Amino acid sequence: MENRRMHPGRIILSLYELVKNSAIAFFFLFILRRGSDAGWVVAGRWIFIIAISISILNIFLSWWRTTYRLEADSVQIDSGVFSRKHRNVPFRRVQNVNRQVPAVLRLFGLTSLTLETGADGEDASVKFPAVTKAEAARIEKALDGYRRERMETAQEESGTENADGETPAAAVAEPFPEKVRTVHFTAQLKDVLKASFLSFSFIALIPVLATVYSNIDDFIDIESRAEGFLSFLAGSGVVLGITIALFALAAIAFGIIRTYLKYGRYEISSDDERIYIRRGVLTEQSLSVRKKNVQAVQITETPLKRLLGLAEAKIVTVGSFEDNLEDISSLYPFLPKRRAVELVGELLPDVRVLDGMERLPKAALTVRMLRFPWIAVIGTLALYFWRADFPYVPDWPFLAAALFAVIYLLRYFDYRNTRYAIRGPLVQFRKGGLWRETFISRREKVIEAAVSQSWLQKRFGVATVGTTNRAKPVHVEELKDLPAAAAEQFDRWYTDRNPELIRADEEVESWKILQNEL
């Protein structure tokens, strides 16, 4: 196939980012210091002009010199203005696919496409910063076509040949049907309103106003005016009440708008092979994850969510995400718990949340209470040497006693909430004091299982078990103070090899080899 360049909209996007990043320096040198003839100011202006000119020239040259080409099994990328760099990324290394449509690209009907791999550093992803939606679909189609071809080849190789060397008709791979997406969840207005209050997004108005106040104060002396305004408010209870009410309404409106821009048009869908998550209004973000790459599921319940019967389900997957996409692997953070559990089952039919989990023995509570309270001791020493004298604040001995009480109370709550279940191919851990977290994974997705026992645990007949799943970074889950018999059951559960687990181990070894190659 022929070499192609990014859409020219990439130039506009780069110019927009350049203007955004250099706006403060421009404002300071050419507006705030516009009447200054100081040598350092004049030199700064010339340096700024030269740097901007070089950056603009580099943007055009970089766009012109960057090309890519789709092969049958890989994507080839050539980049670099003076020092050329060639990258060959096989499709087999691509783990996740995500799209972002910033507001600037939306004006031109463009999108940004990223192919995430399991590598580190510069090789962690293959980015197409600005392409048409049709071109993005072509790239994804090439990726899917490669995987489909591999599946067809595997089917053909698994067929048996007759005496004439021909494959029987029954063994010939049937053509793959067209993928049909099923929409599992779409955010409604009530969901956005619920998210705006539970995420406390209205509090974000305070730092925004503080930033605006600080910037305005650099040009206009508003401190004296603000003092006069505050004196006016303090002198009238009615005006003060109205001002507080207006500020509260503004904060709520700000929080709703901010949440709507992030979670508006939120949609979770899937087909037989992939899970699709899309969100955002001005800046649209979408994620495509192969179900095969999902290693585990985490269900998190904060104290407020537990009080309201809500939960957040998050998938643990192979590969990595860009910094601003770390939280998109969450299946909407504000779902009713029952709906979150149902959604996990709909998206991943081979994973289900187990009921009737086992509790820890009373010996586990004894072990937890006997462990040395490092945090409480260090906090007590800090209170003793600091001895801050604040009004209405008790002396340090009372604060230290309260700290010890809180630590041991949290240990008790953690003991009460901790559960475990090992059934068939599934393992499920639940732990946490005020914050509760449930972890579910299949045996073939666990690349390492560990059982350990400290001196104290051995005395009371309990042990610690742990799992390791492929992710970036590697996901490690640990559950302390299980009965020794349950720890032995967990060890047998993992070491009882079967063909499915052996195939998974072979995939893990291939993945480790791939990591070393990268």
TrEMBL record:
Keyword tags: Membrane, Transmembrane, Transmembrane helix
Where is the chain membrane-spanning?
Answer: 12-32, 38-61, 197-216, 228-257, 369-386, 392-413
Q: Does the keyword Flavoprotein apply?
A: no
Residue span, YdbS-like PH domain: 63-142, 266-342, 415-494
Q: What InterPro entries does the record point to?
A: UCP026631 (IPR014529), YdbS-like_PH (IPR005182)
One Pfam family of this protein, by short name? bPH_2
Identify the stretch(es) annotated as Disordered: 150-169
For this entry, the protein name equals: Putative membrane protein
Which source organism?
Bhargavaea ginsengi
